[in-house]
Amino acid sequence: MPDASLDPPTVPSVGAARTTRRAPYDVLVVGAGFAGSIMAEQAASRGLRVLVIDRRPHIAGNAYDELDEHGVLVHRYGPHIFHTNAPSVSGYLSRFTDWLPYEHRVLAQVGEQLVPVPINRTTINRLYGLELDADEQVQAYLSSVAEPRARMESSEDAVVGKVGRDLYERLFRGYTRKQWALDPSQLDASVCARIPVRTNTDDRYFTDSFQFMPRDGYTAMFARMLDHRLIETRVGVGFDEVAERVRYRLLVWTGPIDAYFGHELGVLPYRSLTFRTETRPVPEGGYLQPVGQVNYPSEDVPYTRVTEFRHLTGQREARMSTVAYEFPCAEGDPYYPVPRPENRELYKRYERLAAGERDVVFVGRLARYQYLNMDQVTAQALLAAREAFNPEPVPGRRARLAPAPALPAGARPDSLEERIADAA
């Protein structure tokens, strides 16, 4: 680990120049996604000097979006749909963006039919040619086909126990096998148990009270979050490039926890994704798909879902529309922790190692080996920042980092190059 001393480095004098520089960074944040950017903003708002680095050539992490060559705003790492029931989360992010209302809807291709996902009354009526028109009728039907399980140990148990074997085979098994390269019988029950089953005709994918998309996109929201005179952001820079060259008092680590420890206990497995995009002309106001996302549960189709971004971003006037085909894979950037007991136990061992790192804060989905929605990461980061940067002791915890002396009004801290030069 780098020297965490607070003493400013001494450098040779240059002419009549001073012989010392200002103190080093207070906080080094590794990762410019949700967790890292929020931690950086919260640190800077408390008067701390922050360096944010990211190995990718951009900010915003997996939420990164940009205009493609056709002028369509595209989510480069798959669709990111913001939703939350937490006013504190939406209130915080609203400081950095205006919003567009958007309620996500998903259809699944089953044979020749498109049916709503999650399962609702319409799904059942279309697949089985029924005319159920009341919640009680749907519940009675599901109860008649469900196969109750004494113990919910696997995702197969969780689904078959609620909706029966046929719906499981048509909508869940193939999709899950493609997504995880494991049969649902080999996956923890929590993977599929979190997918709701509805008896009404509500076809929204989420039912949260706050369902909006950033008006100008996620990247613009992150750019505003990091636009602070005490924050310096560098992309295309890995931790190994600065670890021994930049001095800081506290490290915020949002990367994979096993990578921080050099995988010394073993590698935590993830599923990754690759994408194939296509852009085609559409009539003004038209779309290529009836909804933003169409799922393909059949194992005869190599991809899991197709997203049409204009549904999400509100670019209704565009004459071109871009879709992304999503292919799960084993290699590549880490997206989804694989939820199996042995992986959770390995993470717990890394967590015990992390507890011994006095001046490191581990935050975010990769650092905690958790599948988290964007609002959950936001809430976690805000809590971690409150604990890490509070100059007053929190009951049961010590104060980690008090603010550094304020810079003169209008001044910015020295750049990364200047600080590295100072330490050389």
Share of residues in helices: 25-40%
CATH architectural category of the domain at 25-59 and 226-268 and 338-423 = 3-Layer(aba) Sandwich
Mean pLDDT comes to: 88
Number of strands: 17
Q: Give the strand order, joined by hyphens, for the main sheet.
A: 8-7-13-14-15-12-16
Principal-axis shape: globular
Enumerate how many helices there are, as a single number. Answer: 14
Rg to the nearest angstrom?
24 Å
Separation of the first and last Cα atoms: 17 Å
- Report the portion of residues in β strands: 15-25%
List keywords for this structure.
single chain; 424 residues; alpha/beta; Rossmann fold; seven-stranded mixed beta sheet; five-stranded parallel beta sheet; globular; disordered N terminus; disordered C terminus
Mind explaining what this structure looks like?
- This protein has helices spanning 34-45, 87-93, 121-128, 135-145, 155-180, 190-193, 218-225, 239-242, 257-260, 309-313, 341-354, 365-368, 374-389, 416-423, and strands at residues 25-30, 50-54, 65-67, 73-75, 83-84, 99-101, 106-110, 113-117, 210-214, 231-235, 248-253, 270-281, 293-295, 305-308, 320-329, 336-337, 360-362.
- A hairpin with a 2-residue loop joins strand 7 and strand 8.
- By secondary structure, it is of the alpha/beta class.
- Helix 1 (34-45) packs parallel to helix 13 (374-389) and helix 4 (135-145) crosses helix 5 (155-180).
- The strands form 4 sheets. It has a 7-stranded mixed beta sheet with strand order 8-7-13-14-15-12-16. Strands 10-2-1-11-17 form a 5-stranded parallel beta sheet, with helices on one face. It has a 3-stranded antiparallel beta sheet with strand order 5-9-6.
- The chain contains 14 helices and 17 strands.
- Among the domains are: 25-59 and 226-268 and 338-423, Rossmann fold; 106-193, no CATH class.
